[in-house]
What does this fold into?
Amino acid sequence: MTEDTDSAATGSAREVFGAFLKLGLTSFGGPIAHLGYFRDELVTRRKWLSDSAYADLVALCQFLPGPASSQVGFALGMMRAGWAGALAAFVAFTLPSALILLGFAMAAASIAGPVGSGALSGLKIVAVAIIAQAVWGMARNLCPDKERAAIAVVAVAMLAFLPGAFGMVGAILLGAALGLALGRGTGAAIGGHVTMPVTRSIATTALLSFAALLVLLPLLSGLGQSFAVFDSFYRAGALVFGGGHVVLPLLQAETVAPGWVTPDDFLAGYGAAQAVPGPLFTFAAYLGAVLGPEPNGVAGAALALIAIFLPGFLLLIGVLPFWDRFRAMPMAQSLMQGANAAVVGILGAALYSPVFTSAVGDMRDFTLALACFVLLMAWKMPPWGVVIIAAIGGVALNLLG
It folds into this structure.
């Protein structure tokens, strides 16, 4: 263990659970905001680790597919209390929002009348503003030059002619290839050094498990609906580069396209997910609960949650012993720059369809969506506050006919 992490191995799983339960109940605003909450609570206040060690973890988790803030939390729990701490951090940070969204899913079917339907309409409309904000912010960070902006446009074009999960995978692979051709990776080291209690044999087993599930689950999906659901959510979790909002088009392709979830239910749940704390990936709990075919309800929510988080954690465990060497390779950095630019294009395509085309039916809907966007971008209002305003606005529009 290094000096940065020596003291981090002396905690208990109970301590980790308490710290992350607090974060799971109060961390609004998406993965970037979550990382700020983590730093304030665990680096500044509790002094579990140094700033350089924390920066190293953040760099690693932003490099990998999966839910970055949950991966950082998993790693921090592992540093503090070993494998039990990692599990405690994940459960405590994830459970509050998952339970809230599960409750919303169970109650959504009983919502009727102009107030209920108007509120659901508002939740769909606010998703337009939130995704637009995500596209804008990601484009500024991940497409800072004309070449990477062009990669994003190429990704949109690919999805225009090849929609669905296959097109998204192709866009990411093409983006990575174009990034490699550009060769913008410098090989410069990022952040400090972190040592984790993960041996090379455990890491290798995790990587092999990740790959095996990715290959075998599509073959097993024909054995029953449970296998098909697990396969769909696992694939979505395995291909998410660039933050929580990017999971939207992947989940849409895996659940709406085959008819498991209606477009209206999908967007209503996504809007509701913006109003709760914790990781955006808990949107999977809502989707698992409202699936048309069984498993659904509580069983479907649990299955979807496990499946969508599992690949990101397997990858994290798998690369921990090799991260310092790999991230310094210019080729690796170039690949990720291109893949991240393609992700911007994928999210931009999702902003148009299904988000905008399903939520905005006339100029009044567009006005509400634009107002929500201005509140987020210019007024810097937290997303959960904008969601409440959008729900009220949807009710008002519905009552006005």
